[in-house]
Amino acid sequence: MTRLFCDFPLAIGENIELPKDAARHIMVLRLSAGDTLTLFNGLGGEYQARITRIDRQRVTTEIVSHSSREAELPYRITLAQGIPEATKMDWIIEKSVELGVSDIIPLAAQRSVVRLNNDRAEKRLSRWQAIAISAAQQCGRNRLPHIASPVGTGEYLRQTTPSPRILFSPRATEALSEWARHQKPQNITLLIGPEGGFSPEEENMAEQQGVTFLSMGPRILRTETAGLAAVAAINALWETRPE
Q: Which domains does the chain have, with CATH numbers?
């Protein structure tokens, strides 16, 4: 079933014209009047719709039913990711959405190679949001993860949060798997450094803010691997356990 995101209210019985990107996708798939598809607006649940008209680049559909189906984790995972070089952040966002991450915070860490001014940060954020939408369409999520504007590591660490914050570091003496086995499923934030990891200054600041230091094991993982591996490990340990 084709799934498409529509950034506006949806309701049974409405006839709506699909956004241009969604209409273009319909054309590529060579769908025709009478075919059905699933629409969602990121606010929860999904709607089944029937194509009623295709006219050049315009596609009109009628919403015929609603399903409250969700594919969210029973806890929220926030990924605070040090901004890596090139297109690695695109990959991280796409795969973290598939794994169920609910919030993504791009960290402008001291060792981040990429430096974003306001204009570049806005363009990157727009691109990352589009990637998150595409990933949600593909994996069956009906709620879009929130992607924050890039923020410095120090500024982020000074913010308070009621849920545990975990920083992965070679200096940690406890493994994530051991820690998670003794914790109930709960909202959690994972801090992942860029290439080269967090600086000693950033790690010291994190320690002062009460951040827990954990290890992913004896091997050093790349920045684009570490966060995804941590999310997958937490899901394996927590998702089938009661809260």
A: 3-67 (2.40.240.20), 77-238 (3.40.1280.10)
